[in-house]
Amino acid sequence: MNHDIVLGATGITKHFGALQVLHGVDLHVRRGEALGVVGPNGAGKTTLFGVLAGTLPASHGRVHFDGRDISAWDTSERCRAGIGRTYQVPRPFLSMSVAENVLVAAQHGAGLRGAAAQAAVHSALDRTGLLPLAPRPADTLGLLDRKRLELARALATNPKVLLLDEIGGGLTEAELLKLVELVGSLHAEGLTLVWIEHVLHALLKVVGRLVCMDAGSVLAEGEPAAVMANPLVMKAYLGGAAA
Ligand SMILES: Nc1ncnc2c1ncn2[C@@H]1O[C@H](COP(=O)(O)OP(=O)(O)OP(=O)(O)O)[C@@H](O)[C@H]1O
Questions:
Q1: What is the pLDDT of residues 166-211, one digit of tens each?
Q2: Where are the beta strands (DSSP E) in the chain?
Q3: Where do the domains of the chain lie?
Q4: Which of 12, 84, 134, 167 has a CB 3.0–4.6 Å from the CB of 61, allowing a cystine?
């Protein structure tokens, strides 16, 4: 495997019963890059994230990470190896504080204990600007701070690659700019990102490469402007809008 590729999926298919939602997808993430993943609703983007993170077993195909075949690894092994993710629908423990939520991720996601767990929590809160809110109950946070918390929980697992699933949804334009700034700063620190996002103008401020999926296949990939101008991609989006 090419060592420039930190995370690679090859020939991934996924069936849910009789429904096939991924049809031989190849996805290769380069070390240090920010890769965007777009596509109409139901294209299979979140399912692909599940296969990468190990929450969903692939029906066929292999996943490699950092030079190793991790296809048989479960989600906690992959998390400890350095694959972090956020969820489309964040589910923080609402009665717990911001810091406690991040601590749970450091302990249960990354298996950290004691001073190492506390250091990971401090660093994640600091990087996401949540240190001043550390003692606040999670249910008192506004939407942007909940997104920051979702990021902090993923960062507390010390990821080498961070999978972001539609973290931009529902924010005002001003909030979105702050989120873009934060995600951009994580990438500037050297974190490899794969970001599924429907809010294209936000995504395009951060990513250097784009993959477009439709109906369980990769339609196009490459330089973002070229991908968005690809006739197949335009057709998929217009079809999605009309559906
Ligand atoms: N657990 C499941 N059981 C059955 N079908 C599923 C399951 N999860 C996803 N699907 C189906 O797989 C297809 C792909 O869904 P997926 O969520 O991966 O798409 P997506 O590209 O992430 O869409 P969106 O942009 O709307 O989040 C959809 O038809 C969806 O209904």
A1: 999 999 999 999 999 999 999 999 999 999 999 999 999 999 999 9
A2: 5-16, 19-30, 34-38, 60-65, 68-69, 83-85, 161-165, 192-196, 209-214, 217-222
A3: 1-82+161-243, 91-158
A4: 12
Measured from CB, residues less than 6 Å from any atom of ligand 1 are 16, 19, 21, 39, 41-47
Q: Which residues contact 3 (CB under 8 A, 6 or more apart)?
A: 31, 67
Check: CB of residue 194 under 8 Å from CB of residue 35: yes
Ligand 1 closest atom vs CA 43 = 21
Enter the ipTM. 0.96
Residue nearest to atom 31 of ligand 1 (CA): 42
Topology (CATH) of 1-82+161-243 = Rossmann fold (3.40.50)
In a mutational test of the pocket of ligand 1, which residue from 19, 23, 37, 195 has the highest number of ligand atoms less than 8 Å from its CB? 19
Task: Provide the residue type at 126 as one letter.
Answer: D
Residues 6+ apart with CB under 8 A from 160: 6, 66, 81, 82, 83, 191, 192
Other C-beta atoms closer than 10 Å to the C-beta of 129 total 17
